[in-house]
What does this fold into?
Amino acid sequence: MFTFDADQRVRSWNEAAERLTGIAADDVVGRPCWDVLCAHDEDGGVVCHAGCSFHRLLCERWPVSPSTLVIKTATGPRRVQVPMVALPDRELFAALLLEPGAAAEPARRADAGEPVPRLTGRQTTVLEMLADGKTARSIAAELHLSEMTVRNHIRAILREFGCNSQLTAVAKARRVGLV
It folds into this structure.
């Protein structure tokens, strides 16, 4: 586990994080979290950067779904699960670095062999509407939600599927039988 502040600076780095990354706390504390992790998604898209979406959501007290990221370690890139949470101190956030499989893995669909992401009911509805070709604006109007709320649902869906585009998320959802 490690904690970081509103300025994205690492405040603490525990022994488990040291073991997993091979990077000592003395080399990490005080540095920007994005500079330490250099994380990208499994498709190679940059995730960690100044003002990243995870940090913005945490600062605004939005829930952040656990993500599978590829981080920098002393021995090279490593795939990890990263759940994050805002701590009661409104200026501090915590993240876990877990081996894949250490966290609860999504259920697997036997015939597809792919993980079936766990979505909320509203996320499933939004995903179905995206699969029907609807835009965020039209989904917002139909569900009587703000467009920002719909976009937040879409971001959560993309994270759950580990995708960078709505089209890819819909394709994966079709493969695992969600839509």
